[in-house]
Amino acid sequence: MILFAHGLEGSPNGAKVQALRAAGLVVLAPDGQGLVLADRLPALRAAVLEHGERPPGERLVLAGSSYGGLAAAWLARELGPRIDGLLLLAPALHHSEAPVHDASALSPPEGIPTVIIHGLRDDVVPIGASRAYAAAGRAAGAPVTLREVDDDHGLHGSLDLIVEQARVLLFG
Known about the structure:
The protein is 35% helix and 16% strand. It has a single domain (2-171), classed as Rossmann fold (3-Layer(aba) Sandwich), CATH 3.40.50.1820. A 6-stranded parallel beta sheet has the order 2-1-3-4-5-6, with helices on both faces. The longest helix has 14 residues, at 37-50. By secondary structure, it is of the alpha/beta class. It contains 5 helices and 6 strands.
């Protein structure tokens, strides 16, 4: 299953969630519309905890886009052992807001495969934040892949890659 945190201007039924579902993947996407980060985290945390005890072979991937990517990155540090993969889509790792007082200090959790997809033409979130996050993870020995794509912040031209990478995290 994929637990998806949508972006600040996104929705639980946005294009990325629709693409994942159309590919036959099970996606849970809590509604975070209009909520600040601190108010989004409890629903995401509860969903991870609820699905933390799974039958053997069933995996949980935490995914987040933009502002939701910041939420997912923060939550992965807290609940890392309960998730099996982390998929970050143009994550807003440059933005600090309670409880993330220094987003630049975040790094991928050790032992959890992490994939970051970020557009080279993103004019909302600087790709340098994803590069720094990936580098920090690699330096600590975390299994991190950064996919830089010829796309903008919405990543609508990269939906097939998003689905592909979600499948990799879910099924190996």
